Amino acid sequence: MTQPTPIRRVPGHLRTALDLAARGVPVLPLSKGKVPFANCPACLYTSCGGRPNMKTPGPCTCPRPCHAWAAATTDPDTLTGPAWARVWKQAAAVAWHPGGIGLTVVDLDHAEAVAWARRTLPVTRTVATTRGEHWIYEGAMASANAVRDGVDIKSTMVYARWLGPGTGTLAPLPHTVQALVVKKPSPVRPVTAPVPCGGGECPHRTPAYLERGIAMAEQQIAAATSGVHATVYRAFLAVLSKHGRCGCLTETHMGRLFAAAQTRGESPRHCTDAWSNALTALGM
User: Fold this and answer.
1) Residues β-bridged to residue 27
2) pLDDT tens figures, 94-144
3) CA-CA distance, 27 to 73, in Å (whole number)?
4) pTM
């Protein structure tokens, strides 16, 4: 690989950033406390990605260097441009986006976490940190904090502080690390919201008509990959608008819908609120 041209008369952290960028590593400056600069007020408190306000990986489409991991870039013109001219003079460190180059960092925050990794994980490239070590694997995955005591996973949509290239050879991302971020389904809790009492005309020609409506709502919720809150509300609204006034809808049906929602990560309270809001919207 061609070595980058030596950089002169630039702050030390910018020199490091340009050197990394020339090697294809997306980088960004960090302020004191290892936090990113607030480069983009328009989306400072959202998760940038391919679509606005959606937690999906992808380059930020903001017309300026964005915040946090979305600011990471390999473009030297962006790194040295006017938007960051003063930032680099104030920068306290350089960060990089592991997922942006298909890597995962297992951040081990103390000696006990390091000992666990040595017992459990395959040997790979390691970087010493202030209190522990970074273990770097080849392969990207979803990021998560506190997957166990003192262990964070940093890959897609997060940044890690650059502490040097480390030592050792990169190993493939093991299933042991990927399994750390798999969420176990929350137990389904009892239904607490009221079921409509009925009193209207029953439109059900056969029992299968109601069963089909409940099954369709369960499938709709199960298929949601984003916007789960809105999907659950729409499913509840559809069921109640069709089956909520005749008295055929029971707590058993409602429990099935709540169970489907909780499997997708909704809390019992969110389920109750969505059900109550749907009842209110329908004047029930």
Assistant:
1) 73, 96
2) 999 999 999 999 999 999 999 999 999 999 999 999 999 999 999 998 888
3) 5
4) 0.61
